[in-house]
Structures are given as structure tokens and as C-alpha cells.
């Protein structure tokens, strides 16, 4: 029995692993006639601190603006270089683990989450835990952890470290 996915969620955080997941999701979507949602979650837990006298609101606006610019670049790349238009971009505020695992897939009827193996440094994973591991354990929809590019080639050690 073959599973056909119709609505694929790809969380992105600026890492090479997340962008590998996006490329693989687009390839999968083309084969299945599926839609892709690209999501960047602005972690509001980091906004509870007052950075250099800036208010929480100004930090949030700056982070959302940066996220939107990044997502616009990914959207343009998908449309122009991958020739794929069945794609939307989204920014959400909140805890990335719960937004990706529960909230967003429920709201957008995603049936597959394609997520990079890890987008954080080793130290960040030790402190906050891996979003990928949490999503893989807790999501109510299928999760594919992407480790390779669309040609199933493993990234070099240098590329994986970036």
C-alpha cells in the first residue's frame, strides 16, 4: 500500500538541514501533487528577557520581519529554481516544539512533517532539547526526519556542522 501525502509541513530555521528538508519536500510534493507549507516559528520564550532596553514588542517585530524575509527568499527559490508553486509560507510565534507538533498541523490539515535532522548546535540541543526529537516523538501525523539531499547524498561533515 502506497501512502500519498497531500499537505506537507516543512519547519525551517535557517539551517542547512532544514533547507535539505525543504528541497526533499518539494520533490515529494511534485510526485504526489501535494501542497507544501513552509513554517518558521519565532520562539517567544527568548522574548521574555529585555535585550538592551528594547521592549518585547520591538523584538518580536524585528524577529518576524527577519523571518518573513527569509521565507520570502525560500518561496522565490522554490518558484523560480524548483518550478513549484503549490507552496505557502507562515510565521508563528510560540514554542517551536508544540507549534510544529500540534498546533500548525491541526490548523492546516498537514498529513506529513518533513523536518531537518537538527538545526541547532550541540550546546543549544543540550540546553533546550532537540525540536526534531520532540516532533518525532509527539506529532500526531507522520514525520520524516531528513538527513540527506534530494539525491540521497549525505552532507559532508563540514556542511553538516554549519
Verbal overview:
This protein is an alpha/beta fold. The protein has 6 helices and 5 strands; from the N terminus they run E-H-E-H-E-H-E-H-H-E-H. Strands 3-2-1-4-5 form a 5-stranded parallel sheet, with helices on both faces.
Defining traits:
46% helix; 162 residues; five-stranded parallel sheet; alpha/beta
**Average pLDDT over all residues:** 85
SS-derived structural category: alpha/beta
Helix run count:
6
Low-confidence stretches: none
Question: Based on DSSP secondary structure assignment, what is the total number of beta strands?
Answer: 5
Q: Which geometry do the CA atoms define? A: globular
- What gyration radius follows from the Cα positions, in whole Å? 16 Å
Pattern of helices and strands: EHEHEHEHHEH
Q: Classify the beta-strand content into a percent band.
A: 15-25%
Largest sheet: 5 strands, parallel
The order of strands across the largest sheet is 3-2-1-4-5
Percent helix:
40-55%
User: How many angstroms separate the termini?
Assistant: 38 Å
Give the secondary structure arrangement, pairings included.
Layout: E1 7-11, H1 16-32, E2 35-43, H2 56-80, E3 87-94, H3 96-108, E4 112-116, H4 122-128, H5 131-138, E5 142-146, H6 157-161
Parallel strand pairs: 1-2, 1-4, 2-3, 4-5
Helix pairs in contact: 3-5
Short note summarizing the structure:
46% of the residues lie in helices and 20% in strands. With 162 residues, it is α/β, with parallel strands linked by helices.
Amino acid at each position: 500500500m502506497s501512502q500519498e501525502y497531500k499537505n506537507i509541513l516543512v519547519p525551517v530555521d535557517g539551517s542547512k538541514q532544514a533547507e535539505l528538508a525543504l528541497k526533499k519536500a518539494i520533490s515529494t510534493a511534485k510526485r504526489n501533487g501535494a501542497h507544501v507549507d513552509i513554517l518558521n516559528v519565532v520562539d517567544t520564550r527568548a522574548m521574555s528577557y529585555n535585550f538592551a532596553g528594547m521592549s518585547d514588542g520591538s523584538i518580536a517585530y524585528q524577529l518576524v520581519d527577519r523571518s518573513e524575509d527569509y521565507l520570502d527568499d525560500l518561496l522565490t527559490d522554490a518558484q523560480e529554481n524548483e518550478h513549484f508553486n503549490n507552496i505557502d509560507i507562515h510565521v508563528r510565534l510560540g514554542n517551536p516544539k508544540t507549534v510544529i507538533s500540534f498546533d500548525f498541523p491541526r490548523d492546516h490539515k498537514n498529513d506529513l512533517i518533513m523536518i531537518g535532522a537538527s538545526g541547532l548546535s550541540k550546546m543549544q540541543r543540550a540546553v533546550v532539547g532537540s525540536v526534531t526529537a520532540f516532533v518525532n516523538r509527539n506529532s500526531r501525523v507522520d514525520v520524516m526526519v531528513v538527513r540527506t539531499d534530494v539525491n540521497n547524498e549525505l552532507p559532508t561533515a563540514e556542511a553538516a556542522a554549519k
